[in-house]
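Support reply, case 0932

Customer input (verbatim):
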Amino acid sequence: MYDIEPVFYQHVVKLIRSIPEGKVATYGQIAEYAGNPRAARQVSYILHSSSEKENLPWQRVINSKGRISMKRGRGYELQKTLLEDEGIVFDEEDGIDLKRFLWQPYSGSR
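Our regenerated output:
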């Protein structure tokens, strides 16, 4: 378990809630915008432990390679389906084009 500072936690939750439908963010991106660029694993922990409680759009957070981090059979298919339902397109190798779908909260690309 991680010792997560309340302010960081609140920033992460706010950022994840802000990811618009049809866009994705990376764990590292959320960590950086929340004030700790080295805390991608803490972002993952917050998603895992608080998505339901905080009503987070957890499916919109992926890894820096543009891929779903979960292994197949452990929610992978659900996350992919939810993203596809939002208009996210996967390539033949199940990757997401980050140039097209990455959320840029401070550049007006909502």
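We compared this against your earlier run and they match. Two observations from our side: The chain has one domain: 6-101. Helices lie at 6-18, 27-33, 40-54, 76-85, 98-101. Please reopen the case if you see a mismatch on your end.
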